[in-house]
Design goal:
By secondary structure, this protein is α+β, with helices and mostly antiparallel strands. It is built from 6 helices and 19 strands. Helix content is 23%, strand content 38%. The chain is globular.
Length: 252
């Protein structure tokens, strides 16, 4: 009986070893099991899109990038990171698209993911993914955090914005910005019936009653507004909403 038990243990050990050997080289179990998907908590995601950007003038330089509409999109997404307290850690995000035309013609995003264990992060090798056009197209109800919307005139792209999420009102957006710490409570002021400002710069602008909001760089500065579908005459210069893209960042 003792001989059979020992032999059985050796057989099981051999099977397990074979399962993690590829071409004669042992492969780490973690590397074999994870797909290295970039994951960011939604409050962290939105705070990164806002902090250091909202209210800045069109074309302001942040992290060495000129923040026109496409520059803001790239600079904001590049800042995303996570320490992995609630799952996957993230760093070194880099968006390949430098202009709206790059998003439409095809681009990529690269990043490094890791797993937080016992106060330390085990980082994986870098991942690079294609930025894909979503089949959902132009449906407001199918937009998800992590989506980018691109506008066009004729066959050309003309503007880009990042989907910010669903909020019942501009007051709800203002309260949320204070709750997650983008601004101290009481520092965002109502500057008009349809606007909220910080230090004299518009940061939230309401157009109509849509509950779907975007953040983007406009000629009036980087702000959040709710005219993704482009129904207001004030935003018609951006062109028509023509494309929706999944950045490859999963927001939870």
């Amino acid at each position: 009986m003792k001989f059979k038990f020992t032999w059985g243990r050796k057989l099981i050990a051999g099977i397990l070893l074979a399962a993690v050997v590829v071409g004669g080289t042992a492969a780490p179990a973690e590397a074999a099991s994870k797909n290295h998907t970039a994951v960011v908590a939604q409050d962290n995601y939105r705070k990164t899109l806002c902090k250091g950007f909202l209210g800045k003038s069109y074309g302001s330089v942040v992290d060495g990038i000129r923040c026109d509409c496409s520059g803001y999109t790239r600079a904001a997404l590049n800042r995303l990171e996570s320490k992995g307290r609630k799952g996957t850690a993230l760093k070194n995000v880099s968006v390949g698209a430098h202009c709206t035309r790059d998003w439409v013609s095809g681009s990529s995003i690269s990043y490094t993911t890791g797993v937080a264990t016992k106060g330390a992060i085990q980082w994986n090798s870098g991942t690079k993914k294609s930025i894909g056009r979503k089949s959902s197209g132009k449906s407001l109800s199918q937009l998800e955090l992590g989506d980018v919307v691109v506008y066009g005139k004729g066959g050309s792209s003309s503007h880009i914005a990042i989907y910010f999420g669903e909020f019942s009102s501009m007051e709800a957006v203002k309260d949320y910005l204070e709750d997650i710490g983008v601004y101290a409570k009481g520092t965002i002021k109502r500057s008009a019936g349809d606007k909220y400002s910080y230090s004299g710069r518009t940061i939230v602008h309401k157009y109509g009653n849509s509950r779907y909001w975007r953040i983007h760089s406009t000629c009036s500065g980087i702000m959040i507004d709710n005219d993704i579908a482009g129904t207001s005459g004030y935003t018609s210069s951006f062109g028509q909403w023509k494309w929706t893209f999944d950045t490859g960042i999963q927001v939870q």
